[in-house]
Amino acid sequence: MSNQENKIGVLVMSYGTPESMDDVEAYYTHIRRGHPPTAEQLAELTERYEAIVGGVFPLRENTNGQVAGLQDKLETLAPGQYACFQGLKHARPYIEDGVEEMAKAGIRRAVGIVLAPHYSVMSVGSYMKRAKEKAAELGIEMAFVEQYHLHPKLIVALKERVQDGLASIAKAAHADTGVKVLFSAHSLPEKIREMGDPYEKQLLETSEAVANAAGAEDWQFTWQSAGRTREPWLGPDILDTLAELSEKGVKAVLVAPVGFVSDHLEVLYDLDIEAKAEAAKLGIHLERIAMLNRDPLYMETLAESVIAKTAQIGKG
Question: Where along the chain is Fe(2+) bound (predicted)?
Fold first, then answer.
């Protein structure tokens, strides 16, 4: 008999990353819904991982650390009441694996939360759908935290990072001309607008709240990391935005990727390597805020969101 049977399970979900370079092809194949990537596509993704200092391993460690950090925070706030499990969208342990582990531990009530503050039916909604289906199959009642993009502690954590970033960039060249703060997030297909999806609105709400709290008057929102499909994706992309800012004479940019909560490929490569190189070509000094990772305020945001949602298990 498990000592976790009387606990509330917490399924912590995220996109997932390979555990090693050997797993990149299987990971990419899963993202492509079972269709293996071409040799050219695989080579490009592999090169991106290899370009990141330390390779692919820190990416998985960041997610593992966040799950452990949430468990620690829940234990502090509600001793003995919660047990965290991990479920990934495109890598093991998959979302379904996480639900199965809860069932094996004897858990019958659970809360699901995604390591992404903003809701979209195409992102957080898809995680929830998979978890719901597996939980129903295994007799686990689940409630879900759909978004936490305006949680006060999340805003404070991001505000502090923007302020630290502005202080850092103020010491760099061209700072006397002013700094543009660019808030960013992963693009999604434009069709979400037709669906009335809240993703874009929530991102703008977070950006405005953080900018106001940080006292950053010169800011705008942009997109990044769009998929390569035939359908149009939300834009403008950050590379296009940088070109526009260059034409306007902007010389210093602080990127605040508020749609992401940890250091991973879309941050360490798309921003730190690709966007920074493009900015340098344009004569723009670009820096990025530090990511949340295991920040205590972010862990409290997650823990408080989970605890608040617990009362709703079985009610929807």
Answer: 186, 266
What's residue 314's pLDDT?
78
Residues recorded for the chain: 316
Closest CA to 138 of 167, 112, 103, 96: 103
Task: Establish whether 127 is an annotated binding residue.
Answer: yes
Number of independent structural domains in the chain: 2
DSSP alpha helix (H) spans, the chain = 24-31, 39-51, 57-77, 95-104, 124-138, 152-170, 191-194, 199-214, 238-247, 265-268, 276-281, 296-310
Token code pair at residue 84? 């965290």
Q: Is 186 annotated as a binding residue?
A: yes
pLDDT band at 1 (very low <50, low <70, confident <90, very high): very low
Instruction: Read off φ and ψ for residue 60, nearest 5 degrees.
Output: -70, -35
Token reading at 216: 């950053």
48 is an annotated ligand-binding site residue: yes
What's 48's domain CATH number?
3.40.50.1400
- Residue given tokens 């592999």 in the structure block: 46
In which domain, by residue range, is 270 found? 152-288
Whether residue 136 sits in one domain with residue 175: no
Convert the pLDDT of each residue in 38-62 to its tens digit.
Answer: 999 999 999 998 898 666 667 788 9
128 and 161 inside one domain: no
What pTM, to 2 d.p., does this model score? 0.95
